[in-house]
Specification:
The chain is α+β, with helices and mostly antiparallel strands. It has a single domain, classed as 3-Layer(aba) Sandwich (Glutaredoxin). The protein has 5 helices and 4 strands; from the N terminus they run H-E-H-E-H-E-E-H-H. A 4-stranded mixed beta sheet has the order 2-1-3-4, sandwiched between helices. The protein starts with a helix and ends in a 9-residue tail after the last helix.
């Protein structure tokens, strides 16, 4: 848990991902479409990736990737991020976290 907290500290948007996960890529693309620049950690390319993945599972991330943190808070996985987007809540969340400056509701 401490390892995860260190990685998300002082970053507005952090995504834990695996390079082979298409949903992780989709979520990264969605967040980037708002103009945000998320910090992405590819767990399968990190020497301590398995430890981080276990910590994410212990935090309730099922499946472990994508795991999205906005404003140092766990938002959830792909389903939760997509739901926030459909409810027009993802943009304001990114603004409040300082990931983007402005957001215009579509």
């Amino acid at each position: 848990m401490d390892m995860v907290m260190r990685l998300i500290n002082e970053k507005p948007v952090v995504i834990f991902s695996k390079s082979s996960c298409c949903m992780s890529y989709t979520i990264q693309t969605l967040i980037c479409s708002f103009g945000a620049n998320p910090t992405v950690y590819e767990l399968d390319q990190m020497s301590n990736g398995q430890l981080i993945e276990r910590a994410l599972l212990q935090q309730g991330c099922q499946p472990s990737v994508p795991a999205v943190f906005i404003g140092q808070r766990l938002v959830g996985g792909a389903n939760q991020v997509m739901s926030l987007n459909l409810q027009n809540e993802l943009g304001p969340l990114l603004v409040n976290a300082g990931a983007i400056w402005i957001w215009k509701k579509k």
